[in-house]
Amino acid sequence: MSKRRIGILTAGGDSPGLNAAIRGFGKTAINMHGMELVGFLHGITGLVNNNTVDLTNDTLAGILTQGGTILGTSRDKVHKFPVDGKLVDMREQIAKNLEKDKIEALVMIGGGGTAKNAKRLADAGIPVIHLPKTIDNDVAQTDTSFGFSTAMGIATEAIDRLHSTAHSHHRIIVVELMGHRAGWLTLGAGIAGGADIILIPEIPYSIDSVAASIRRRAASGRPFSVVAIAEGAHDVAVAKRLRNADELIKLANSPDSKAAAKENRRRIETNERDSSFRVADALEAATGLEARVTVLGYVQRGGIPDAGDRLLGTLLGGAGADLLAEKKYGITVASQNGHAVPVPLAKVAGYDKLVPLNHPWVKAARNVGTGLGD
Length: 374
Ligand code: F6P
Prior knowledge:
Blueprint: E1 5-10, H1 18-33, E2 36-40, H2 44-49, E3 52-55, H3 57-60, E4 81-83, E5 86-88, H4 91-100, E6 105-110, H5 112-123, E7 128-132, H6 148-169, E8 171-177, H7 184-192, E9 197-199, H8 207-219, E10 225-230, H9 236-251, H10 255-271, H11 276-287, E11 290-295, H12 307-325, E12 331-336, E13 339-344, H13 360-367
Parallel strand pairs: 1-2, 1-6, 6-7, 7-12, 8-10, 8-11, 9-10
Antiparallel strand pairs: 2-3, 4-5, 12-13
The protein binds 6-O-phosphono-beta-D-fructofuranose.
């Protein structure tokens, strides 16, 4: 009997732990289930162009500790793929590529965007499973995604270092963290690094309130502050406009009006948000303390995965291979209470996991006197 051939790819922004998951899946699939593994290069792009590499025990050896992804990645979409200046639906092409190479199922490792692409392929009849990675930790139905733990560690160390320079110069340092529309990374690293103020998308801030916290600290003998701000955080006025824009998206009743409503939201989100530099200027003006900005950027995503992400990638990857061996398709392999749990893609794709206002981390931050800008 010929071996079952499985395709695997990584998509979306890279994150630490991707190689651990490729290895965890691959070694389990090859050694425990006798499968053959084919990697698609550069995410959806490789799937469309049938750009593949055979993955064996040899190619999977030594990658556990490597950052990035040995397969490469991209942010392309299966239903809107750029061809000659147009966006084309490539699902039929993808199905043909898989059939031609006798690949019976596909493993897609990525975040929320990849879950949506996986569901699009599953709806088109392609057997697919999704493994959740992202430093943002915003994939629905999973307690954590690999990449988050490492990024939180890197950001925590950065905040530690910013503390001593803020303290020495009696400055405000505004440090911007990634996270897309979720505040997990900023809240987690902010608490662990002892940021004095933490601003996240889920809790709209007021500059007046942030400035008042900083002035109170100065009056009590601490004329310096570290303000950790998530890239998706907004002040109350912009947050209100975004909520209204979200309503308009929900109410849109045609594809054109939906696209226009989404574009409106994107415009508010990108053009009208306070940049960290504007926040720093406003705080300098309101407190009389000098302010500086550090944008952590891609350093949060790069480099070797920590123990937590190696472990999670290995666990979810291996469980994914076991589920695939049982022909369980159309699922995300989620991490729930320490276990790998299959969850239908329909419950994951299109949903965000944001920080609930009653989350223990929010309470913990308030307990130690950290300002949340509200
Ligand atoms: O989703 C991971 C992430 O790093 C986000 O935190 C950030 O908003 C985004 O990717 C950056 O995307 P890109 O790599 O396309 O610049």
